[in-house]
Amino acid sequence: MDGLKTVACGAIDSLKDELNDLSQEIWKNPELNFNEHHAHSVLTQFLEKQGFKVEKGYVLPTAFRATFGKGAGPALPEIGHACGHNLIAEVGVAAGIGIKAAMEKCGERDIGTLTLLGTPAEEGGGAKIDLIKHGAFDNLDTAMMSHPANFTMPANTFLANSCVTVTYKGKAAHAAAFPWEGVNALDAAVMAYQSISCLRQQMKPTWRIHGIFTKAGVKPNIIPEVAELLYYIRAPTDKELRELTEKAMVCFEGAAKMTGCTMEVEWDPKPYSNLISNHTLVSLYEKNAESVGVEFSKDYNSTNAPCGSTDMGNVSHVLPSIHPMFDIGTEAVNHSHGFTAASGSPKAQPYTLNQGKALAMTALDVMCQQHLVAKMKAEFQEDIRKEQ
Q: What is the pTM of this model?
């Protein structure tokens, strides 16, 4: 086993310049959800050159599937900068390169199939959910990805998340001459916003609701006929999310009744599930990461604080998964200009390559030791049972 891991790490190191070039090409050409055509092109070309069988436009125009070997095996999701998606892609490709080299070293011995899934639209598009529905994760044993941050943790809290647009409709009127003729939709939106704020006092510490006004009227002298809110509702489990959603709906509905407005509610059709980190995989990942010099953030003061939400959570409800976070040598936080710059900096490269090695070695542990597959699957079934 150690020999195969050495081969994997060596293969990654041998292509470190090419992997950096790949990351830079994505970083210099940021693209919006489901329009990652350049990233799709450079990643699939690179993987074809490395000997993978690549299916371009897999299920979605900018998704892909690259495979090597036969039988079951692990999946490495993600293509992707304020959140460092170029580095997520580099980690996945690097891990794939390392695993493939180890598989080739095995010769005729069949240890399974490696799958690299290019999953676009990470920022709110929920492409992994589309891929789940089309069977992209069927017949796979595990899924792994790693996400850049300003700290390093093997397992993190990612919340279940539903996005909702609430539209209030009233009646326009001249705000000075005939205000009594109007029905103020903005009042309804403001009351809903304030009701949600009041609700927070009775919310659990792990629950989150945050929203903005997306429509609030046209001119001050016109009673607003339409007002609109966009809210994210989050909780540690899908079950708790349903409970919190019911409470939020009471706030939204009450605001409509108090102002005489009508209300329309539109839910995002692809809600995110909470992330279930498989303990067996986490333990393997920790050991492998430490073996290549990764230092975990023992003093990180928000270890158990939510990191947000991800469609990798949905994947983790389908098969055993991990989604570690890794420091890239910056104090800047995700979704900031500083983090955008850091994700394209040469300083991020050693951290990124180490993550590729850690995931590759973890995958090899699973592929070469079938008892680990049975263990993580049994644990997965128990985790899902607890979620019900």
A: 0.92
